[in-house]
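In this section we walk through a basic example: taking a raw amino acid sequence and producing a predicted 3D structure, encoded as discrete structure tokens. The instruction is simple. Fold the sequence below.
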Amino acid sequence: MFIFDCLIVFIVSMVPLVELRGAIPIGVGLGLPEILTLVIAIFGNLLPVPLIFVFARRFLEWGANKSCQKTLKKFCNFCLKKGEKAGKKLQDSTGESLYFALFLFVGIPLPGTGAWTGTLAASLLDLDFKKSVIAVIAGVLCAGLIMLLISLGLFNIVFT
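The resulting token sequence is shown next.
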């Protein structure tokens, strides 16, 4: 049962939008040791990051050149243009703190933010792989700690 519970945490942490925000409370609720839950959720959440970064933009560029699939071509071109436009605007407004903004985006555990979304955005914006992955890793660590503290009820103790 212990291994099965660990596997649940690992798999849930890889699911887009749920990620470790859902996996850590599940692990704590299943009675797994807190540090083990955190480590498993972090590894599960980070596993898809390099794949998303490398293949998301490549898929969109591939799809943008498919003349036989009009809908796919339209969607991919839309995503690439939107990503480039947003990236230019974001870089103009944040400058060198772009990777810090990526860290904060991933690190604050709110709905719609996280490793999947942050990595996808970094890929679409054609950001540096190494800097983006470091920012996402740091963000996942931060979000994991926040979610663990919330799951353990420590914020309730501090703010009441």
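Looking at the output, two observations stand out. The mean pLDDT is 89. DSSP finds nine helices and no strands in the chain. In the next section we compare this with other chains.
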